[in-house]
Amino acid sequence: MKSILYLGILCLIGLAGCNEAKTPSIPATAGQGGTRTVEPTNTAVNVRDRTETAKTPIDQNENQSDINLTATIRKRVVGTEMSTDAHNVKIISQEGHVTLRGPVKSPEEKAQIEAIAREVAGKEKVDSQLEVNP
Fold this sequence. Notes:
Blueprint: H1 2-17, E1 25-27, E2 35-37, H2 43-49, H3 64-78, H4 84-87, E3 90-94, E4 97-104, H5 107-121, E5 126-132
Parallel strand pairs: 4-5
Antiparallel strand pairs: 1-2, 3-4
């Protein structure tokens, strides 16, 4: 009977800990003072990504040549000095064709990633859907 009571108390403590709001806050820009809460604004991107034509990393083929193709491109992208966003772009290979998706910080990063992918996969086998998001 005591164990049920202890278990109930632990559940109540756990529920109380989950009650805190988890909204991110970022420092305000200069001159505004304090902090402000920023709501995620990627709803439109998420809706777009749910369409059946949008490729996601789940679409990556599991044959060894496509895995190697993606790994080679990823290794070269990560080996360059670019933003974290650029290092995290989605690289999806299917039957030797590469799809690049995700945000990058500048047109230069976009061009650099596309050049790497075209050099590795072939000029005509790259579909770039990269977005510049400064």
